[in-house]
Amino acid sequence: MERLLPSFKQIIQSLRMGTVSGPILIHFNHHDEDGNRDAVDHGDFLMPYWKEFAAALTHWSEYHADEISLKVFVCFIEIPKAVLDVLRPAFEQSRIESFFFRGSRHPGDMADFVTSVLQTNLYITTVGFAGIAFVHEDLEAIYHRAIKSRNAAGQITKILQLQQLSGCFQDGIETETLEMILASVSTAAASKEVTLYLDKNGMSSREAVVIAEFLSSNPTLTALNLSDNRFDNADAAVLANSLSSNTNLRELYLENDEIKKNGRFAFLHAMFDVSSLASCAASNHTCRVWILQEDPSALINNRELISMNKWEKIFAMLALSGGDSFINTSLLEGVPAHLIPMLLNKADFGANEEDDPRVTDLYLELTNIIRSKKHDVWDNLGKTKPINCMYELMRCWVVPLIFA
Predict the structure, then answer these.
(1) What percent of the chain has pLDDT over 90?
(2) 59: which of 15, 50, 101, 375 is 20 to 30 A away, CA to CA?
(3) CA-CA distance, 286 to 305, in Å (whole number)?
(4) Cα–Cα distance for residue pair 259/206, rounded to 1 Å
């Protein structure tokens, strides 16, 4: 409490003076007997401060906001209905672009508060929650009465997204509820980047099927956090298959799940299929998958330009599968002649100039090949890698014609 009150007072003063900068964080760092963070109820004691905060928020919005909108985070402080009733008018009227609540034990009251605020305050574009045990009816009210109706208005209002539900369900998410959460992402289609956090919800096979079907539809979701759930190798295979038709997802987090070697391989094959050059070209080139910390597989698809990810893999296959030859031109059999100039052009575009052996390591892992001197040479070519690729391609094609 000795840390919370000075911070709370400083936030109120900054709002009053118009000197607030950055997100507003009202946070109480308390741990239970087991050492876990826990929301503490100081409703009656803090009520005067909540009233001052609500008044200061309204004052800032009226006199200091200009074109700025605030981000508000309230974490590990119990927020009963009496406090929500105090905050509601300020949240409905103030220039807030996003808010996040963590650790409240009053999910029904929170859902009523959020629904009312979102219906009224059209500045808000993202909301998130963690550690709040919502039931289906709570989220149904938030989605149908606020998010769906707001987004259906199109250009009349700003697009609204439910961005985070972390640790809000202990034993998984019912299918109907999960489909509704994912639908809220679909209605946020006008957003440039759409992120969804569903970590720490006890999800497993039932949810994997629903999420995979959603990802297969290629929604505008750009990042999805599924860490700290119960997904296993079979679930990983289901999720990995959905990436074959997805070109929008850029980040997928599955850290601290129950995914082992086979599940990791399923994602590797989805992103870097080495069975043939055509399969490699048809792999997913947009998504980075995070399963283990420091996993070299996260290096795949790490370039901003999707086409660079694709051609980096193709040239790695051509160079690393060639036996004694620098380039394995046998993989190019059947490639139409009119595409050969494109291949030469992409040698400069796709051959990775960085001396990073991890892509090579992944290729060797996927093909079960032991690293040799040839692979070390490829990894250490540096800036000469593109010109070496072009030279070898031309030599392999032209020299046989001279002596034909």
Answers:
(1) 57
(2) 101
(3) 9
(4) 16
Residue type present at position 275? S
Radius of gyration of the chain (CA): 26
Domains assigned to the chain: 203-302 (3.80.10.10), 312-399 (no CATH)
Residues whose CB falls within 8 Å of the CB of residue 335, separated by 6 or more in sequence, listed in order: 277, 343
Six-digit token string for 260: 């082992």
Task: Calculate the CA 215 to chain-centre distance.
Answer: 13
In which band, very low, low, confident or very high, does the pLDDT at 400 lie, cut at 50, 70 and 90?
Answer: low
Burial 84-118 (b: 16+ CB within 10 A, else e): bebbbbbbbbbbbebbbbbbbebbebbbbbbbbbb
Question: Do 161 and 125 touch, CB atoms closer than 8 A?
Answer: yes
Count the neighbouring beta carbons within 10 Å of the beta carbon of residue 71.
14
Distances from the Cα of 68 to the Cα of 8, 61, 71, 392, angstroms = 21, 9, 10, 57
The residue-averaged pLDDT of 21-41 equals: 67
- The backbone torsions φ and ψ at residue 87, rounded to the nearest 5 degrees and listed phi first, read -75, -25
**What's the CA gap between 17 and 35, in Å, rounded?**
38
Q: Model confidence over 336-347: pLDDT tens digits?
A: 878 878 888 888
Q: Identify the H or E element spanning 70.
A: strand 70-75
Strands (E), 124-281: 126-130, 161-166, 194-197, 221-225, 251-253
Give which of 159, 291, 147 is closest to 225, Cα–Cα. 291
| Paired tokens of 81 | 């209905």
3-state secondary structure of 308: helix
Task: Report the C-alpha gap between 343 and 346 in whole angstroms.
Answer: 5
Residues 234, 266 contacting (CB under 8 angstroms): no
Q: Which residues of 275-301 are buried (b: 16+ CB within 10 A; e: fewer)?
A: eebeebeebbbbbbbbbeeebbbbebb
Average the pLDDT over 188-214 and give the result: 89
Strands lying side by side in the sheet with 96-102:
24-27, 70-75, 96-102, 126-130, 161-166, 194-197, 221-225, 251-253, 288-290
CB atoms within 10 A of CB 345: 12
